[in-house]
Amino acid sequence: MAKPTMGVIYRIGVLVVAIVAYLYFPIIQEFLENGIAYLWCRDFEGLRQLILSYGLWAPVCSIMLMTLQSLVPFVPGLAITITNAWIFGWQYGAVYSWIGALLGASLDFGIARWYGRPVVEKFIDSKCLKIMNIFLQKHGILSVFITRLTPIIPFKVVSYGVGLSTLSFCQFVIATAIGQAPAILLYSVIGQNLTHGIHVTIMITSLLIVIGAIVHYYRDDIEHKLFPDKE
After folding, report:
1. What is the DSSP code (8-state) at residue 69?
2. CA distances (Å), 133 to each of 159, 178, 193, in order?
3. Is-contact 83 77, C-beta < 8 A?
4. What b/e string do you get for 159-189 counting C-beta neighbours within 10 Å, with b at 16 or more?
5. What is the pLDDT along the chain (231 residues), one digit of tens a residue?
6. Predicted structure pTM score
């Protein structure tokens, strides 16, 4: 019988640590349960109160919530982006949301890369993964950049899909970091004053879709500039 490799042992160890931390540290359990509940209900006021309850650690709490939402099905990061801007102002709120979104995307990527399709399909429908795989094969790493620009495409599908592909983690992080910035920045400006309403949100979403279409049109030139060493 073959012995488990160090990689397998390490992956199992990470799972064990995560489970033990959840079961034996009430503060972590409470944070996760309350955070998921508020995210699931899109409860902006609940999220705001939860974040502010951590005082000086509020920015860290905000980033952790943004990272956490990447694991919760059907929950958009937009809820935390708006809440962050509401609490910290659009400048700091955008920074915290950007960091959290990047960490969350990296977490999804790591789950897919480490644990494979059987685990990913517990989170994402196989049809969505198939569509993403076709898009990746056609456009390569630039597909990540394009999909990050258009918030109508779930980040989770992109992150898990790329994790199952042969694209490198470094390329994924670069494309995600750049691609998600415009949407987070614009929605943070909205979030600072929630009275702007749905009309401005629709307008900005439409603008981002147009930008995504432009990037898609000039994809070859952009990919060459971002990744000049790629053949």
Report:
1. G
2. 11, 21, 38
3. no
4. bbbbbbbebeeebbebbbbebbbbbbbbbbb
5. 445 576 677 777 777 877 887 788 888 888 888 888 888 887 878 888 999 998 999 999 999 988 888 877 666 677 788 888 888 988 999 999 999 999 999 999 998 888 888 888 887 878 878 888 887 877 777 778 777 776 666 778 888 888 888 888 998 998 899 888 888 888 788 777 654 445 555 555 566 556 556 655 555 565 555 555 554
6. 0.77
- Do the beta carbons of residue 47 and residue 39 sit within 8 Å? yes
Q: Which two tokens stand for residue 29?
A: 């359990």
**Chain centre to alpha carbon of residue 213:** 21
Q: Determine phi and psi for 3, rounding to 5 degrees.
A: -80, 145
Return the domain boundaries, the chain: 6-226
- Is 107:70 a contact under the CB 8 Å cutoff? yes
**Can you tell me the distance from the alpha carbon of 162 to that of 144, in angstroms, rounded to the nearest whole number?**
8
Structure tokens belonging to residue 99: 């960091």
**Angle subtended at Cα 214 by Cα 209 and Cα 215, rounded to the nearest 5 degrees:** 95
Cα 165 to Cα 137: distance, rounded to the nearest angstrom:
9
Q: Count of alpha carbons within 13 Å of 71, Cβ hemisphere only?
A: 16
For 197, other C-beta atoms within 10 Å of its C-beta total: 10
165 vs 14: CA distance, rounded Å: 22
